[in-house]
Amino acid sequence: MKVQQQSRHLVLCDSPADIVCADNTVNAHARVVFNLGDSPALVIEAEVTDDAFRRPFAGVNLLGTTMRLTLRENGATVPCLCTGITAAKWRLIPNPNRILVGQSEALKEVVFGIVNLGQFYVQEPPGTMHQNPLELIASPWRIVISEPRGTIIAAVRDGAAPTFPVVHMGSLTRTDGMPFSSGDAQNLLDGLHWFLSFAAGQWVAPAFVTGVGATGETLWQEWGTRLVQPNQKTAGWFDEHHGEVLSQAFPGFMALWSREPWHEPLGSAIYWYVRSSTVSAGADGSLILSQAALELLAWQILVVEQRALSAHGFKRLPAEDKIRLLLNYASIPVEIPLGLAEWFGGKENSNREGPRALVETRNSLVHPNPGGTKPPIAGCMLLGLWYLELVLLRLFEFTGSYSNRTALHRWVGQVEQVPWAKCPT
Questions:
Q1: 3-class secondary-structure state, position 128
Q2: Is 34 left (phi over 0), alpha (psi -120 to 50) or beta?
Q3: Which residues, in sequence order, are CB contacts of 256 under 8 Å at separation 6+?
Q4: Would you put residue 323 in left (φ > 0), alpha (ψ -120 to 50) or beta?
Q5: Minimal CA–CA distance to 144: which of 117, 110, 171, 165?
Q6: Are 118 and 144 in contact (CB under 8 A)?
Q7: Is the peptide bond before 125 cis (omega within 30 degrees of 0)?
Q8: H-helix or E-strand containing 25?
Q9: I need a surface site. Which of 117, 193, 213, 336 has the fewest CB within 10 A?
Q10: CA neighbor of 339 nearest in space, from 248, 424, 235
Q11: pLDDT tens string 278-325
């Protein structure tokens, strides 16, 4: 691999290749490039000889066509979308935007960069503060997050665009030292992607993934990255001066993530949480998405998990009551927090219940009444995000401290215990 600093490109492979399109096979020379610029993505630049290009595809518009490319150097095969043709040069985008190189049942360690996870500090033991390393343990797995050093990841850190920082690397091993498969590694990295994205309130992704064997030889690689977006600082439950809470929340997250009935709804809830946390969603869009996530979790807990309600009974409930029952399950108070009182008419109205305010405001956006009272959209946006992150932390059996987004004038390092830890049920 070679990082070209000025162009922000990482050349992953330069190899002869076969491209299959419309039952025709074309010989080509493919250059696989990871773009480190403003939109990180894998791009394949394929050069096709004139004869091979003219015969099968003369007069055919290939833009938008799905193709299958195989790299002869390592045997990796990937479906691609053709996004550009100039003479005999084709520009292909892998779909999905990752390429798996090799597979193994004998991995001892997987190392990777972490895109978009900002700098944080760990207070372990209490009263001390340091940056790295941080261990995330969910038996039998151990992930160590540390500063990039002595690898291609360190070079990538220096070459990546500021909008997609790589300030951490990760190391995945088993706690018992036993070998593991590349399939296991993929599953763990998938989970880490969702967990760190929930912590950061934006898309965080492992990248530049390399699996090595007992003697340090490369056995498996994952080129490309999972979902990622331009870096933007958010102010959610994770406080950057208390990085140790990641270690406390990770085991519970992985326990839930590994359960088949929870895999899809947990991913959907975190997806909507991240979308709701970003500036692009807007206050109105954030509120709508967060309520959708809350209702999804209410269904999963009350109907699927606990069987406290039938599917028919749940569907007949007003949205306000679905959210109310969900908050009751999670030991989260339904009253609007005092920190948000100014958004709801002052402290004299602070006893107003949050689920009703949330649903009424959301309904006013979806079914607007031009002559009605202007709803407290910004306050309900914060309320919905607060509910959602607390419900998720409750599901992870987290009992530590968090940054309360409803305390609007809090400082970095200001945390408090989660509600159910204050008043255990």
A1: coil
A2: beta
A3: 262, 266, 395, 396
A4: alpha
A5: 171
A6: no
A7: yes
A8: strand 24-35
A9: 213
A10: 235
A11: 877 889 999 999 999 999 999 999 999 999 999 999 999 999 999 999
Tabulate helix, strand, coil % of the chain (nearest 5): 35, 25, 35
Hey, what are 205's tokens? 């992704």
Max alpha carbon distance in the chain (Å)?
A: 80
Res 300: pLDDT: 97
Q: Are residues 44 and 35 in contact, defined by beta-carbon separation less than 8 angstroms?
A: no
Q: Which two tokens mark 362? A: 């959301």
Non-local (6+) Cβ contacts of 253 within 8 A are 138, 191, 194, 195, 198, 396
**Residue indicated by tokens 């920082």:** 165
pLDDT, position 231: 72
Structure tokens at 310: 């039938």
Q: Residue 205's beta-bridge partner residues?
A: 115
CB 26 within 8 A of CB 53: yes
- Three-state DSSP class for 84? strand
Cα–Cα dist 38/15, whole Å: 26
- Cα distance between residue 81 and residue 72, in whole Å: 19
Q: How many residues are given for the chain?
A: 425
Q: Which amino acid is at 352?
A: R
CA-derived radius of gyration, the chain: 24
Residue keyed to tokens 């809470």: 245
Terminal CA-to-CA distance of the chain, rounded, Å? Answer: 54
DSSP, collapsed to helix, strand or coil, labels residue 7 as coil
Both structure tokens of 10: 């990482």
Q: At 18, which amino acid appears?
A: D
Q: Which two tokens stand for residue 260?
A: 């088949």
What pTM was estimated for this model as a whole?
0.91
The answer to whether 75 touches 30, Cβ cutoff 8 Å, is no
Mean pLDDT of the chain: 88
- The answer to whether 327 touches 336, Cβ cutoff 8 Å, is no
